[in-house]
C-alpha cells in the first residue's frame, strides 16, 4: 500500500498511524517535519506545481518501495501557508523488519529536499519576506543514496 | 506557435502572473531562447530572468535543460531551483 498526498489541510498523524497499525506490519518508522519558528519566522508558504509535485512524491515513494521490502508507505506533504510548529511533511514506512523501515524513511526524508517540486517562502515578524535558496548540504544528503 | 507558460515561486512574483499564453516569435526554438526572449520583452521579464542560470524549466511536466526544443510543447513551466520538503 502506497499512499501519497499533497494537501493544504493539516495532516492527521493519528489517523495515518492507525492505517498502518491495522496492517499487521512488524515495524514502522515515521518522520514528522515541522515548521521551525526560529529567527522570528511567522509564516512559511509552500508553492508547488500541481501536477509535478504529486508526481514527484509518487516517484519517490515507488523508488523507496523498489529498494526496500516495504509493506506500507505513506508520504504526505502540505502546501500553502503554515505557522511555526505546524506539521509540514509526514513520512511513514512499514516493513516486516525495522532496518528496512528506518532506511526507507531516511531515504525519503533526504530525497524530499531535492526531488520534489516545492518552493519555500519565509515571512518574518520584522516584515522581511524571502524565498529560501537551495542548500548544498541538502544536495549532499540526497546524493549519498545514489541515482 | 501558441505556448502556455506557467511561472512558480519568485519567478511568478516577479512576472506578476501565474501563467500566460504567448505567440512565440520565429527563432525562439528552445528553452534558453524562450528565457532570453522573455527577459528582453518587458521590464518584468527583465527582472524575473536577469539570471538565466538560476532558472529551471519543465516541458509538459518533465524537467528539461536550456537546449530542450519547444516544438510540440503545450506547457513550459519556469521556476527557481526547488527548495524541497
UniProtKB/TrEMBL annotation, chain A:
It comes from Sphingopyxis fribergensis. It holds the Pfam family MoaE. Belongs to the MoaE family. Pathway: Cofactor biosynthesis; molybdopterin biosynthesis. Keywords: Molybdenum cofactor biosynthesis. Converts molybdopterin precursor Z into molybdopterin. This requires the incorporation of two sulfur atoms into precursor Z to generate a dithiolene group. The sulfur is provided by MoaD. The lineage of its organism: Bacteria, Pseudomonadati, Pseudomonadota, Alphaproteobacteria, Sphingomonadales. InterPro entries: MoaE_sf (IPR036563), Mopterin_biosynth_MoaE (IPR003448). This is Molybdopterin synthase catalytic subunit.
TrEMBL record, chain B:
NCBIfam families: moaD. This is Molybdopterin converting factor subunit 1. InterPro entries: Beta-grasp_dom_sf, Mopterin_synth/thiamin_S_b, ThiS/MoaD-like. Transmembrane segments: none annotated. It holds the Pfam family ThiS.
